[in-house]
Amino acid sequence: MIADILPSEVASAEAFNDGLEGPLYPEEAAQISRAVESRRREFTTARLCARRALARLGLPPVAVPPGPLGEPRWPAGVLGSITHSTNYRAAAVVRTADVLALGIDVEPDEPLPEDLLESIASPDECARLRELRRTAPQPVNWGRLLFSAKESVYKAWFPQGRRILDFFDADLTFTPEGTFRAHLLLTPLERELGLRADYSGRWLARGGLLLTSVVTLAPVRAPRAEVVGAPQGASNGAPRLGGYGAVR
Ligand SMILES: CC(C)(COP(=O)(O)OP(=O)(O)OC[C@H]1O[C@@H](n2cnc3c(N)ncnc32)[C@H](O)[C@@H]1OP(=O)(O)O)[C@@H](O)C(=O)NCCC(=O)NCCS
């Protein structure tokens, strides 16, 4: 399912009901030695998914231990993201030459309690969700979808920003057709450093789950000879946003 909202450059693997078998590396096993059974299962299956996804990129199996703030640590030259929800685990990986930012998230397709919505959504976002509830052709649990999309944005942001974002640091706008855009409120220093503030994502409601992805494709760099005389903006070095399945 997750592959349906990822571009072809991204390799992914998913598992239902912890149906994969395989060992953990010692540095991974050490992370869950005192964890409860449910956490051990989701952590282990997610690692097996990560290695399957890496293999789909043609890369050898490696340990994917968590870093100091919980972020998965990928081999050099690789970006990735992990998510789990009840009975569903997924991992997505890509070469950094192809993609600048990647985040995936999954949530149960259930309503978000109204008091929780107020703690993750700005008044503007709440108004946009009300409008979607009124106009979208299909009923969608928009509040829960917003939560998932913000988690995807956070996971995509983290490798460059390395700051825990507040839910109000991101302003999201959805379309009923399965896309969204996110704008991050950066600190003055982050702006000065040129960190990325705008992200685009895709979403999918299927099989009792809400899935979201955020991907920033790397700019296509035309060979030097082709740039001469090319139409303006054909390859301006800017990251490509939006419609990531169809860009190339
Ligand atoms: C870390 C967090 C994003 C996880 O999301 P979740 O929906 O609770 O859980 P998921 O199962 O989807 O994702 C868990 C995975 O996220 C990944 N993750 C954790 N911290 C991460 C980070 N800082 N950066 C990137 N990925 C991270 C891990 O791979 C983890 O799985 P693992 O522990 O098995 O390795 C969430 O718990 C959190 O801390 N959010 C606060 C920050 C935030 O999202 N703000 C909103 C900003 S707009």
UniProtKB/TrEMBL annotation:
<dbReference type="InterPro" id="IPR003542">
    <property type="entry name" value="Enbac_synth_compD-like"/>
</dbReference>
<keyword id="KW-0460">Magnesium</keyword>
<dbReference type="GO" id="GO:0009366">
    <property type="term" value="C:enterobactin synthetase complex"/>
</dbReference>
<feature type="domain" description="4'-phosphopantetheinyl transferase N-terminal">
    <location>
        <begin position="27"/>
        <end position="93"/>
    </location>
</feature>
<feature type="binding site">
    <location>
        <position position="151"/>
    </location>
    <ligand>
        <name>CoA</name>
    </ligand>
</feature>
<feature type="binding site">
    <location>
        <position position="107"/>
    </location>
    <ligand>
        <name>Mg(2+)</name>
    </ligand>
</feature>
<dbReference type="InterPro" id="IPR041354">
    <property type="entry name" value="4PPT_N"/>
</dbReference>
<keyword id="KW-0479">Metal-binding</keyword>
<dbReference type="GO" id="GO:0009239">
    <property type="term" value="P:enterobactin biosynthetic process"/>
</dbReference>
<protein>
    <submittedName>
        <fullName>4'-phosphopantetheinyl transferase</fullName>
    </submittedName>
</protein>
<dbReference type="GO" id="GO:0005886">
    <property type="term" value="C:plasma membrane"/>
</dbReference>
<dbReference type="GO" id="GO:0000287">
    <property type="term" value="F:magnesium ion binding"/>
</dbReference>
<dbReference type="Pfam" id="PF01648">
    <property type="entry name" value="ACPS"/>
</dbReference>
<dbReference type="GO" id="GO:0008897">
    <property type="term" value="F:holo-[acyl-carrier-protein] synthase activity"/>
</dbReference>
<dbReference type="InterPro" id="IPR008278">
    <property type="entry name" value="4-PPantetheinyl_Trfase_dom"/>
</dbReference>
<dbReference type="InterPro" id="IPR037143">
    <property type="entry name" value="4-PPantetheinyl_Trfase_dom_sf"/>
</dbReference>
<dbReference type="Pfam" id="PF17837">
    <property type="entry name" value="4PPT_N"/>
</dbReference>
<feature type="domain" description="4'-phosphopantetheinyl transferase">
    <location>
        <begin position="102"/>
        <end position="192"/>
    </location>
</feature>
<feature type="binding site">
    <location>
        <position position="105"/>
    </location>
    <ligand>
        <name>CoA</name>
    </ligand>
</feature>
<feature type="binding site">
    <location>
        <position position="105"/>
    </location>
    <ligand>
        <name>Mg(2+)</name>
    </ligand>
</feature>
<keyword id="KW-0808">Transferase</keyword>
<feature type="binding site">
    <location>
        <begin position="83"/>
        <end position="84"/>
    </location>
    <ligand>
        <name>CoA</name>
    </ligand>
</feature>
<feature type="binding site">
    <location>
        <position position="39"/>
    </location>
    <ligand>
        <name>CoA</name>
    </ligand>
</feature>
<feature type="binding site">
    <location>
        <position position="155"/>
    </location>
    <ligand>
        <name>CoA</name>
    </ligand>
</feature>
<feature type="binding site">
    <location>
        <position position="47"/>
    </location>
    <ligand>
        <name>CoA</name>
    </ligand>
</feature>
<feature type="binding site">
    <location>
        <position position="165"/>
    </location>
    <ligand>
        <name>CoA</name>
    </ligand>
</feature>
